[in-house]
Amino acid sequence: MNHRLAFTFATAVVLASPGASAPAPATLKEAFADHFLMGAALHTPIIVEADHPARPLVRQHFGSITPANALKWGPFNPKPGVYEFEPVDTFVAFGEEHGLHIVGHTLFWHQQTPAWVFQDDAGQPISREALLKRMNERVRLLAGRYGSRIHLWDVVNETFEDDGSLRKSPFTRVLGEDFVPEAFRMAAEAFPADVQLIYNDYSMFMPGRRDAVLRMVRDLKARGIRIDGVGMQGHWGLDFPKIEDAEASIVAFAQAGMRVHITELDVEVLPRTPDMFGADLNKRAQLSAENNPYPDVFPAEMQEKLARRYAEIFALFVKHADKIDRVTFWGVTDADSWLNGWPVRGRTNHPLLFDRQNQPKPAYHAVIGTASGK
Ligand code: XIL
After folding, report:
1. What distance in Å separates the CA atoms of residue 186 and residue 155, rounded to the nearest whole number?
2. Backbone angles phi, psi at 260, to 5 degrees
3. Per-residue confidence at 282, pLDDT binned at 50, 70, 90?
4. What Rg, from alpha-carbon coordinates, does the chain have?
5. Catalytic annotation on 158?
6. Between the chain's N and C termini, which has fewer beta carbons within 10 Å?
7. What residues pair up with 265 in beta bridges, in sequence order?
């Protein structure tokens, strides 16, 4: 019996409780069908390798897909006039073939955007008009090529600091406070009306950032600029954030008229120093035996801890399912998680629901259990 058959058989045995009238759901997307979409971010190998071992999991379990890197300015448009269309075309075709909800990540982010975007031909900083023109060209090109086939865009990613101040970035250095409104204005003008436009950020449970996002939403509305929702990334840990703090943000964003998306969920299980919370890509630490404790086996007691944490997180999401459109994991299996490389390069991390053999972990079953409120 191969692994996949073994899993299907074992799951059927565990889930088929005697006397139950309806069979228990066998996949994530079936289990949460009445609550929200279940999504996964696809790193480029999963997009371009048709026989990638994680592909069957994507088809079975997820109703929404996000490209982890392929649409970011750098990977997509590394040099002026040079476009890497192929992975994105493949990604969109894959989504359409399987009837999936397709996310565009991300129009504007201070990371993974090439330096040339902010420079003129002489390598000098460009003017406000020139930067707005380049941003607009990017939006128009993507809207022209993909239109309504990409159903939702993260228009701006991570432009606030933990304390709610505007992040100093190549975008805000040139555009200041106008960065966000200009970005959303050009997106709303270029994309068809049925394409959802959201703001996305990490550590959204922090009061400073929560308030900044609420102010941003009010400001965009006051200017008559469309924003449909807020993406809470969800790079969380075994004991952060507090469920009440995440809940306060979900409720506050919904009260502000926003649809809530959980856009990049994973749960860190390896030790991190306090300055390494959040998802700031500039922060890095050295690999050591202490910060990489499970290079081979992820022990049973840790599997249980992770399962309990995922259960409490999903109980929160199910409680607020009327406000949440989608919950997307940042990766499919532990093998392709970005947390193997950040904030420490070369760790063996275990933050997702499927292990390195593409098998469901105890956390998977714990998550499924929350769908029916059990
Ligand atoms: C990560 C990708 O997963 C990595 O492959 C890449 O090297 C760096 O970016 N917040 C985001 C995502 O919005 O785009 C980041 O993705 C993870 C943090």
Report:
1. 10
2. -100, 135
3. confident
4. 21
5. yes
6. N
7. 329
